[in-house]
Amino acid sequence: MNKKTWGLILIFYVLRIKRCIQCVVIGAALCLISPVLEANELPTHKPIAGGVSIFELGPYSDAPNVSYQGDRVAAIKVSGDWFAVVGIPLSAEVGAEVAIKVKVDDWISFSYLVRVLENDYGEEKLKVASKHVALSQTNLERHQSEKTHIDAVKRTFTQKKLDSFKLRMPVEGRLSSTFGFRRIYNGEPRSPHSGMNIAASTGTVVLAASPGLIIDVGDYFFSGKMVTIDHGSGFLTLYAHLSEIDVSVGDVVSHKSQIGRVGVSGRVTGPHLHFGVILNGVSVNPDLFL
């Protein structure tokens, strides 16, 4: 290559390095979040544990390959520029820097750092009989087997163009438990709540929160009768504790499609819908999409 070609390559990498430095989060945001994002139906940018981080990638012709901890991340094109929409796991520690890897082609790759901000979801301490919190060996083995399957479903990533990340409330009812809330039984902390609970009478109709493809239907120990919908690019919703399931794997649904009815299946104490949202394999706060 001649000197002119080398010079152009050097300029490109200087600009890319400058862009990466600008996109390291020290506070509330990675890059300037353009007002146009709101018009394109994206979730709320909130880089906390269980939250969502949105940042600009650049004006590439094809979608960049974005990943976090080995899982693909959703990317959407807005006014000629690509933006990544990253789900941050509930397990992320405050102040930790989450590395998001971006690969444009065989010779352009770089990383962005997202600093996890502080947030308090709340907790409750309870004392109960051990029989109410400890699983029998049989139930434990069932749960572990089902968890392996559900975790694999949550990692689904299909190459589908996303027009909107906005969701509709899937059922009418009262919010009875919020995302991220943690209960501590007899001094032992349980996993924080991975969705929102909407209390409603048994038999209340549950609708799909957004168009998509039914990718999993099952009756699980903790979640009871549950449906999972793939909306594309690692963006999924799940609906648990149903009394009835009205769809099958492979069905295509709209936001008006009935997928089931509220119930008390699984490990619950009263009728409600557990509504969950998954991004790049991790549970994130549904409130950010409603």
Would you mind describing this structure in some detail?
With about 290 residues, the chain is of the alpha+beta class. It has two domains: about 5-115, Sandwich (Immunoglobulin-like), CATH 2.60.40.1590; about 125-290, Glucose Permease (Domain IIA) (Distorted Sandwich), CATH 2.70.70. Helix content is about 15%, strand content about 35%. It has three helices and 20 strands. It has helices at about 5-20, 35-40, 135-155, and strands spanning about 50-60, 65-70, 70, 75-80, 80-85, 95-105, 110-115, 125, 175, 180-185, 190, 195-200, 205, 210-220, 225-230, 235-245, 250-255, 260, 270-280, 280-285. The strands form four sheets. Strands 9, 12, 13, 14, 15, 16, 17, 18, 19 and 20 form a ten-stranded antiparallel sheet that branches. A hairpin with a 3-residue loop joins strand 14 and strand 15. The longest helix has 20 residues, at about 5-20. The chain is globular and about 55 Å long. The model is unreliable at about 5-35 (pLDDT under 50).
